[in-house]
Amino acid sequence: xxxxxxxxxxxxxxxxxxxxxxxxxxxxxxxxxxxxxxxxxxxxxxxxxxxxxxxxxxxxxxxxxxxxxxxxxxxxxxxxxxxxxxxxxxxxxxxxxxxxxxxxxxxxxxxxxxxxxxxxxxxxxxxxxxxxxxxxxxxxxxxxxxxxxxxxxxxxxxxxxxxxxxxxxxxxxxxxxxxxxxxxxxxxxxxxxxxxxxxxxxxxxxxxxxxxxxxxxxxxxxxxxxxxxxxxxxxxxxxxxxxxxxxxxxxxxxxxxxxxxxxxxxxxxxxxxxxxxxxxxxxxxxxxxxxxxxxxxxxxxxxxxxxxxxxxxxxxxxxxxxxxxxxxxxxxxxxxxxxxxxxxxxxxxxxxxxxxxxxxxxxxxxxxxxxxxxxxxxxxxxxxxxxxxxxxxxxxxxxxxx
Length: 402
Known about the structure:
By secondary structure, the chain is of the alpha+beta class. It has 3 domains: 4-137, no CATH class; 184-198 and 234-401, no CATH class; 201-230, no CATH class. The protein has 13 helices and 17 strands. Strands 5, 8, 9, 13, 14, 15, 16 and 17 form an 8-stranded mixed β-sheet that branches. The chain has a 4-stranded antiparallel β-sheet with strand order 2-3-1-4. A 3-stranded antiparallel β-sheet has the order 10-11-12, with no helix packed on it. A hairpin with a 2-residue loop joins strand 15 and strand 16. The radius of gyration is 23 Å and the shape is globular. The protein starts with a strand and ends with a strand. 35% of the residues are buried.
């Protein structure tokens, strides 16, 4: 399947035939398990999609959305009231979950870029040129079929594809940092393995105790004796990281498999490009990255990232701050591409997934990188201020190439 990202900044409203496809996709999303019980997210998504299709961009400002969708006073202070921003973050996660669960077979996918309230429509086959859309970004390594377009449209798209693929080589410049970072994974003929952490959780089972009140009243000995370990869980930060990355791979039509760390063998890692999600509860993250410059360590009760070349440099998780570590290894011990995305806590792991799936974040991180950075191993340490377990913006505090 051929996919393309179409900028939703049309000169005029989208033609009816394409609006109908987008609206049909919208209804599928709203009826899904990810949205069915979330009325506010439904209202939010319907509002921004329909106004985008009509090119009503003045209606897609934070203050207006707050007033119309969230019934805020029209003059409310957006600096003090983050309801729209928080709900937008939740909406992105719900969309990623929807596409992760439903797979690749969509004529168009709907995404909400970070930092924007204008959704993007990503087409399975790029719409014809005469839609009036102002920009089309054709993904790498894709061949557009002329049967899908009028001949003139096909010619223009082929020209755009040539510029996109070979223009950077001719000009001596690089493509987007996101593409360069993931290119070895996209180029691999094998599915990418997403290996998530497998924390041990304890459930309470007892024939004598059947509800929470009885548990609270039970003796300590009885409580302990009823604890049964289980690995059938995934941490919330790992789940959000997985959703971000799955959304990226679905958009690029890249096959993937998802496994928990305790189910993965070293042979599995050798047979696929792999993304390791999560830190201390993912045995493979700790084993495969423990000899690198930046490493995860536990000092007493404190989780930290240490710089092994500069022992005085370390980054500790605090109640209001989390850190994440991203590693990309060409020459890992597996013999295949290995990428680590993990935080000290839930917020950091979520941030790691969002960062390496976000073109804006990646372009900013690598704008001053060495010219051939994409051919090197690298590590990035990220910092974020968090509210509860929800991360804020990402800040690069250290980056290392070798």
